[in-house]
Amino acid sequence: xxxxxxxxxxxxxxxxxxxxxxxxxxxxxxxxxxxxxxxxxxxxxxxxxxxxxxxxxxxxxxxxxxxxxxxxxxxxxxxxxxxxxxxxxxxxxxxxxxxxxxxxxxxxxxxxxxxxxxxxxxxxxxxxxxxxxxxxxxxxxxxxxxxxxxxxxxxxxxxxxxxxxxxxxxxxxxxxxxxxxxxxxxxxxxxxxxxxxxxxxxxxxxxxxxxxxxxxxxxxxxxxxxxxxxxxxxxxxxxxxxxxxxxxxxxxxxxxxxxxx
Length: 261
Description:
By secondary structure, the chain is of the alpha+beta class. The protein has seven helices and eleven strands. The strands form two sheets. The chain has a six-stranded antiparallel beta sheet with strand order 1-2-3-4-6-5. Strands 7-8-9-10-11 form a five-stranded mixed beta sheet, with helices on both faces.
C-alpha cells in the first residue's frame, strides 16, 4: 500500500470506532483523531510521504520497525510510545486494522471507566480459567472441532494443562487460549501456547492479546521461565498479536509434524 492508501484506509476505520472525532487543531496538513478527548491517531505528510501515527507498546513498536522499513519512530511524537507508518509493500490492511484498533484500545484502557465509550470492548470482557468440561462443550463454536465432554475432562484433569475463556459482558464465551506446561530434565519449565481462538465478531479488538497476557501471567505464577508457540509465517494477525505482548518471532525455525500415528 502507498502512503495515501494507508491514510484513507486508516481514516475510514478510525471513524467507524465509537466516540471518535476528527479535527485539525494543528492546521490543515494534520488530521487528528480522538476517542472522547484523547488522541490515538494522526495523519501528516513528511519527507517519506503521507504517514499515519499511532500509539503502540514500546516492545511491539521496536519489533514492527525491525520488520517493516516504512514503520519509523513517531514523527514529532514520543518515539517510545508512538510509531509512524508510511507506504510500503509489507503494509497490509490486516496489519493496519490491528494497529489502529490497538492504538484506540491503548487510549481507552487508560480512561476512567465512566469516560470510556459505551460499547462492548476489551475493557468489558472477563478472562476466567475453565474449570469444568461443560464450559468447554458449551463454547464448542470457538474451537476448530466440536468439543467432546470426555476430551475436555481429560484435558482439564492433566497436571500442567490450563485453558482460559474470554467472556463478553453477558457471560458468553468469545475466545480462548490453552497452554501446556513443558518440563525437561535439563531445562527450566516453559509454557507452550497450544491454541488461541477468538469469535469472528470480536477479532481485532484486543481479546486475543488479553488472553495471551493471561496465559503469560499464569506461566509466571507456575514458575515458567518462558513461553513459546508456533504459527504460519503468513499469519499476519496472529504474529501481530504475539508481538504486541512482547514476543520475539524467529522466522528461521521450521516445524516438523507427524500427523498419521
